[in-house]
Amino acid sequence: MEQFIALIQSYTALGIGVIIGLGALGACLGLGIMGSKFLESGARQPELIPLLQSRMFLLAGLIDAAFLIGVALAMYFAVANPLLSAVSGH
């Protein structure tokens, strides 16, 4: 029984690392690409910078929110793992 619990905890730790790592990588790439496109479009048409800036900040918030939802899910599995209740029988 203790082996199953240790196995679930170790796989959960690996899963948490993958969730946070890939989420951070995706958010960084998304923000980097979006920021470079914003700078490029602002250099081409400076009169559109206020409109593009507000939309860029909105999208940056959504990208960060998606990453933070992944972090919250990972922390949920780290603190209150629902998979352990299936093994322990409670």
From TrEMBL:
The residues annotated as site (Reversibly protonated during proton transport) are D64
Its primary localisation, in coarse terms, equals: membrane
Q: Which UniProt keywords apply?
A: ATP synthesis, Cell inner membrane, Cell membrane, CF(0), Hydrogen ion transport, Ion transport, Lipid-binding, Membrane, Transmembrane, Transmembrane helix, Transport
Entry GO CC: plasma membrane; proton-transporting ATP synthase complex; proton-transporting two-sector ATPase complex, proton-transporting domain
Q: Which residues cross the membrane?
A: 12-35, 56-79
Q: How does it sit in the membrane?
A: Multi-pass membrane protein
Q: Which residues form the V-ATPase proteolipid subunit C-like domain?
A: 14-76
**Protein function:** Key component of the F(0) channel; it plays a direct role in translocation across the membrane. A homomeric c-ring of between 10-14 subunits forms the central stalk rotor element with the F(1) delta and epsilon subunits. F(1)F(0) ATP synthase produces ATP from ADP in the presence of a proton or sodium gradient. F-type ATPases consist of two structural domains, F(1) containing the extramembraneous catalytic core and F(0) containing the membrane proton channel, linked together by a central stalk and a peripheral stalk. During catalysis, ATP synthesis in the catalytic domain of F(1) is coupled via a rotary mechanism of the central stalk subunits to proton translocation.
Record protein name field: ATP synthase subunit c
Task: Please tell me the species this chain comes from.
Answer: Frateuria aurantia (strain ATCC 33424 / DSM 6220 / KCTC 2777 / LMG 1558 / NBRC 3245 / NCIMB 13370)
